[in-house]
């Protein structure tokens, strides 16, 4: 957990309103697990005031570079998309606990399920898992053909299925439809994406070993403000913090 | 040059992280040594543990943010057993923020938490806009605020500061009632009640619908209130609302605050408190001051000329 | 798609420049044809001409500004003889902002100005924070606000809207009192009381010391108040506070406003009103609406699903 | 009175914390009198919110360029100083009424008195007056040697005296000291600078033909908000607006 200014190496649109930005700096050395995130100050002005959380998509320790993939949604991500090569960004990170690569044994099969801008962290995850000898299968869900990205990158590591909600690319339907229809077999499921998707996965595969990366609006990003809590279901007052304890949790740790 | 002495609080400098914006210090201790701080206002503590409001709990606004945490905290016992002892390693006084639904709740928390060795003052939170009972209800009625202050003063082992709500028509009236009831100091301001809608769903972004507005957007409201209240009461004020820089802190001092709390800015820059502390001497000198105490209330102490006009 | 019908006001669109931020229209007529506006809220008029407060009268704050104009205006007679007749060339209803120090002042201005042919409604300014007598005093006391409303209703030839102050603990209480007193509508919010100090002199920047805070900084406070009041009263609300874009206007409609006034943004961009009017149809469609009337109060009308969820 | 985006042609420091920025665009054609000003939006963000008024220092109709000279004082002017060549600035202007060059007859002598960042508009004024055959004398006042600018430009048009408050350059003292000591003779006095200076000039030379360019905090800059009024002294309620009726007034029109 460091605060530093990283240099923008590149920043370009890779799908409809989806940008990839590569950042360089010493801070990269502190990265440990795929699924960790960066908390970025997108502007020096007082508006937007808060930082923006973005998952780390890819790390290259050799050159101290990380990439993030983001959708231009509101003002913050729009400002981010305007950053020029060579400019500096105030970054807090790497934050949180990612996917527990260390706990997945070689030879096992991991099903990686990503939805929309939940897909990015799966790239580094795939890389780490395959390096370790884990077999990976990817299921990626998008709204429409124009939103699809990262299919090629995933194919490099293992089987990859793409679903679009409107059927304009790959299979028509949701990621859960694909898993069922293709009868995909796996030992562990790792997923990142919108909450309804995570919920469906937990419901259908909760008896298995499932890890979910959660999203919640954040204040501090470091555990101090209690903005990003998620109930565990244990007791009335028990909770975890997405920013500090997560964003990746075992499915049974979070009440969805 | 930076020291300030207030009831119960010998502050090495006037900069204090604001309650709810610094947890119980653990996270920020990962960034710097908390002993550099003037003091620490810890997260509101209630007698029982609370989960608070459903999420989303924060939303962003122009130059500000809304929060509706809802006083989530691990409860008095846990704070006494774990959080406060852990904070003892730092050489800085703790100001314990006390909340509740009824007078009895406040009394219970105040009585016990005020006996913790490193708690040097209490901050009565009668201004939280994000809970259904207690909180802001006490903060908008002078009589209720006074009664609560009196009740807590009776049981507290340390000086009691009362945290004022800005969501009132006449803040000096409430401040005077609280002073008359025996408060040792005031802290102000808590957040303004606000809301933001999500255009996509047509609904409020916050699950709690309304939230408390903080950040630079509210600084002019806070400065105005500190300016007015500091002239109406004799007890000291810890000012807050939108402080991001040493210049902002100076503005609060000039307005009449004796110390300054920093809230939302901690989320933007975790190092903001030590950075303000480091900058403050230079900024004081730049505007012609030799010490913090000299600045306090300068905006209305017209009998004295500002230092740099003396020469 | 953009029309809205309110007591006295057939608006071709819901966008109205706010009082005090548009003078009597002359300056903006140099930029565009004022007939495109839903209506015009003219500068506060008092019975006698007023100079207002000493300068400086404006100061900037984070995402906002402070003003302490102090109701400067050329007086009732001049407004009736020169300003209103000049505005007759435009095909847009005028809402006359009425101010005074005592009930009698309001009555006198209301009675005469309401008879001008192009004045279709009055806006009672009981919320100006920048004058010593009248203004905000009426706006923070439900009984006084109700009495004034009643008195003005008796003499006004056109529907009466009352402009609410946000500097209160309970805005619905005041709104309901005003509704019960016979008001035809509400306009809200006026400015929050604020202050900024000049660090170089140590004094308030504004000669009047305090001023009214407007601009994007206050939008969350305004949205919250419109959301609450629109559920508590039956009369329509013209919402305002920090509107800069068509999206902001939509947020006010969803919160419960029937039309939207634009104040400070006119200073930043003199074309802001026609630009919002031009953008509004696209923005409505983008969020699944076919008309302005369909949006009004959608944030709390839970029985109906937002349009784009129907499909 | 137009609103347009002008292109920054250059922007550089010409004295201590004093910048000169050259702007290009069609709007320049509407310039009429030296002393008019531009109202600039220094940032697209909501902070700083309001525009900043800056006097037009110099106009080149041939290439549609105007220059402004400004001191980096607060946040707005600091942001302005960071504008790069080629960037666009949202400008409202030209605003207000300037110095009445048309009323000053050839052969007469005009004394131009500038203080600090009140000096810039005198440049265009000098140019216009000399073009017309009016003799010009300049008296420029600054705090200190490091603040001095535009002396050379003024010398090209006529005698130029410089005073500094601390005596580190030119004569020590105020502009009024110089006018008295050098026994400068003139038919008309035109001045721009801090209010205390204008006040002193009005007091000492108010019986002559004197034009003063006033400064006041502004909201709209176009006459709509009543922020920038100045009493005329005629009656309790009589006033002029600096932005619309001024910024240049005959000395007797304004109560200082
Ligand atoms: C741990 C984590 C990892 C994320 N990783 C990615 C990623 O890799 N790629 C990507 O495109 N998006 C990611 N998101 C979502 C991303 O943070 C939001 O899309 C972004 O903050 C929106 O900012 P904005 O200014 O464009 O939108 P606005 O709606 O204008 O933002 C306003 C406020 O709401 C917050 N906010 C809005 N949407 C979200 C959201 N979905 N989640 C959390 N906060 C939100 C913003 O942070 C900001 O504080 C992640 C979120 C979290 C919590
Ligand atoms: C008609 C006119 C012409 C001017 N011409 C010049 C010029 O040619 N060169 C130059 O350097 N300055 C000039 N000024 C002053 C200049 O406008 C201010 O220095 C500038 O606005 C300060 O902005 P800031 O953000 O740096 O300061 P801040 O203090 O951060 O500004 C805060 C607010 O106060 C206003 N403000 C602050 N100081 C002044 C001031 N002295 N006059 C008016 N408003 C002020 C700003 O416009 C802004 O709204 C002129 C002012 C006027 C009214
Ligand atoms: C996320 C958040 C949580 C807060 N929690 C508390 C709290 O528990 N008790 C309290 O008295 N004030 C609480 N506050 C209010 C702050 O202490 C402070 O009064 C307010 O935010 C204004 O200061 P700022 O603008 O510097 O943030 C909270 C504020 C925020 C933003
Ligand atoms: C310079 C200025 C002058 C104002 N004068 C008046 C006035 O005369 N009467 C009135 O009812 N409101 C007045 N207002 C308040 C506005 O009409 C409006 O309620 C407020 O500014 C909030 O809207 P905004 O954020 O869009 O500016 C004034 C506001 C400003 C900034
Ligand atoms: S974002 Fe502050 S605790 Fe998680
Ligand atoms: S600045 Fe608005 S009237 Fe002059």
Tell me the number of strands of chain A: 16
Uncertain spans of chain A? none
Task: Give the overall silhouette of chain B.
Answer: globular
Biggest sheet layout of chain A = 7 strands, antiparallel
Low-confidence regions of chain B: 303-311
Name the CATH architecture of the largest domain in chain A.
Answer: 3-Layer(aba) Sandwich
Full CATH superfamily name of the largest domain in chain A: Nucleotide-binding domain of ferredoxin-NADP reductase (FNR) module
Strand order of the largest sheet of chain B: 3-16-15-10-9-8-7-4
Pair with the most extensive interface? B-C, 46 and 46 residues
Q: Residue share in helices of chain A? A: 10-25%
Instruction: Give the overall form of chain A.
Output: globular
| C-alpha Rg of chain B (nearest Å) | 18 Å
Spatial strand arrangement across the major sheet of chain A: 4-3-7-1-2-6-5
Total count of helical runs of at least 4 residues of chain A: 5
Organism (chains B, C): Bacillus amyloliquefaciens (strain ATCC 23350 / DSM 7 / BCRC 11601 / CCUG 28519 / NBRC 15535 / NRRL B-14393 / F)
Domain Dihydroorotate dehydrogenase catalytic (chains B, C): 1-284
Binding site for substrate (chains B, C): 43, 67-71, 125, 190-191
Pfam family, one (chains B, C): DHO_dh
């Amino acid at each position: 957990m460091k605060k530093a200014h990283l240099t923008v190496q590149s920043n370009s649109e890779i799908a409809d309103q989806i940008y990839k930005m590569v950042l360089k700096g010493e801070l990269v050395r502190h990265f440990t697990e795929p699924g960790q995130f960066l908390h970025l100050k997108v502007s020096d002005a007082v508006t937007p005031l808060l930082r923006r959380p973005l998952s780390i998509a890819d790390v290259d320790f050799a050159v101290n570079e990380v990439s993030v993939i983001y959708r231009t949604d509101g003002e913050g991500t729009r400002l981010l998309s305007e950053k020029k090569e060579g400019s500096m960004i105030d970054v807090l990170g790497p934050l949180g606990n990612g996917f527990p690569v260390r706990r997945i044994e070689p030879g096992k099969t991991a099903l990686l399920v990503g939805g929309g801008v939940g897909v990015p962290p799966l790239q580094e995850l795939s890389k780490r898992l395959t390096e370790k000898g884990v077999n990976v299968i990817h299921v990626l869900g998008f709204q429409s053909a124009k939103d699809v990205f990262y299919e090629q990158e995933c194919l490099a590591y293992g089987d990859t299925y793409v679903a679009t909600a409107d059927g304009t690319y790959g299979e028509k339907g949701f990621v859960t439809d694909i898993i069922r229809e293709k009868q995909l077999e796996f030992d562990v499921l790792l997923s990142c994406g919108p909450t309804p998707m995570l919920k469906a996965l937990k419901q259908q595969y909760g008896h298995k070993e499932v890890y979910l990366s959660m999203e919640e609006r954040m204040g501090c990003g470091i555990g101090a403000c209690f903005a990003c809590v998620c109930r565990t279901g244990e007791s009335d007052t028990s909770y975890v913090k997405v920013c500090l304890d997560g964003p990746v949790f075992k499915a049974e740790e979070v009440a969805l | 040059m930076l020291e300030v002495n207030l009831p119960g609080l010998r502050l090495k400098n006037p900069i204090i992280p604001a309650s709810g914006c610094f947890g119980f210090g653990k996270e920020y201790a990962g960034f710097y040594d908390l002993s550099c701080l003037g003091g620490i206002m810890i997260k509101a503590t209630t007698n029982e543990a609370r989960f608070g409001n459903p999420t989303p709990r924060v939303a962003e606004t122009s130059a500000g943010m809304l929060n509706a945490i809802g006083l989530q905290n691990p409860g008095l016992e846990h704070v006494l057993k774990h959080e406060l002892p852990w904070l003892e390693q730092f050489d800085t006084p703790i100001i314990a923020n006390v909340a509740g639904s009824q007078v009895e709740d406040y009394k219970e928390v105040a009585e016990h938490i005020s006996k913790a060795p490193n708690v040097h003052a209490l901050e009565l939170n009668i201004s939280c806009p994000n809970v259904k009972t207690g909180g802001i209800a006490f903060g908008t009625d002078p009589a209720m605020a006074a009664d609560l202050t009196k009740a807590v003063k009776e049981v507290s082992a340390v000086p009691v500061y009362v945290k004022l709500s800005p969501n009132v028509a006449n803040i000096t009236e409430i401040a005077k009632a609280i002073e008359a009831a025996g408060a040792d100091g005031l802290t102000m301001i808590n957040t303004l009640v606000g809301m933001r809608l999500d255009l996509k769903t047509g609904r409020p972004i916050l699950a709690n619908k309304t939230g408390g507005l903080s950040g630079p957007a509210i600084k002019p409201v806070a400065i105005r209130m500190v300016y007015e209240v500091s002239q109406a009461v004799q007890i000291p004020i810890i000012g807050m609302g939108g402080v991001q820089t040493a210049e902002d802190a100076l503005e609060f001092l000039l307005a009449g605050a004796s110390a300054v709390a920093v809230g939302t800015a901690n989320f933007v820059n975790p190092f903001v408190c030590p950075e303000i502390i480091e900058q403050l001497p230079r900024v004081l000198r730049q505007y012609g001051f030799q010490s913090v105490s000299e600045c306090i209330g300068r905006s209305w102490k017209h009998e004295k000329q500002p230092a740099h006009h003396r020469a």
